[in-house]
């Protein structure tokens, strides 16, 4: 029987939402205004988000509804997580 933890099943932390965003963003660059096959507009991200560039430091505070977009060295999205 799977372990169900109610606090981890909130809308921000659902694995379905994370997978959905990963499929939209993986390998794309985040831009300020335009979206196309190789980029995604920052304005189309959820209100609660932060883009973390490769090698940057980020606070470890946990906000279940905040989407964290991690970029690789080349500036493309490498990982998406909530928290």
Structure description:
The chain is α/β, with parallel strands linked by helices and 83 residues long. The chain is built from one helix and five strands. It has one helix at residues 15-25, and strands at residues 29-31, 39-41, 49-52, 67-71, 77-82. It has a three-stranded mixed β-sheet with strand order 3-4-5, with helices on one face. Strands 1-2 form a two-stranded parallel sheet. The longest helix has 11 residues, at 15-25. It is globular, with a radius of gyration of 13 Å. Mean pLDDT is 86; it is low at 4-12.
SSE layout and pairings?
Layout: H1 15-25, E1 29-31, E2 39-41, E3 49-52, E4 67-71, E5 77-82
Parallel strand pairs: 1-2, 3-4
Antiparallel strand pairs: 4-5
- String of helices and strands: HEEEEE
Strand order of the largest sheet: 3-4-5
Mean pLDDT across every amino acid position: 86
Our Rg estimate from Cα atoms comes to 13 Å
**Could you tell me how far the N terminus lies from the C terminus, measured between alpha carbons in angstroms?**
25 Å
If helices are DSSP runs of H or I spanning 4 or more residues, what is the number of helices?
1
Class based on secondary structure composition and strand pairing: alpha/beta
Oligomer: single chain
Largest sheet: 3 strands, mixed
Quantity of strands, as a count: 5
Which regions have little confidence, pLDDT < 50, spanning 5+ residues? 4-12
The residue fraction in helices comes out at 10-25%
Shape: globular
Approximate strand percentage: 25-35%
């Amino acid at each position: 029987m799977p372990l169900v933890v109610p606090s981890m099943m909130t809308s921000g932390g659902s694995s379905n939402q994370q997978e959905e965003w990963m499929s939209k963003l993986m390998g794309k660059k985040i831009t300020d205004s335009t979206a196309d096959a190789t980029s995604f507009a920052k304005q189309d991200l959820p209100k609660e988000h932060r883009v973390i560039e490769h090698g940057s430091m980020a606070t470890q505070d946990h906000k279940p509804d905040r989407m964290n977009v991690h970029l690789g060295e080349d500036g493309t999205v490498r990982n998406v997580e909530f928290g």
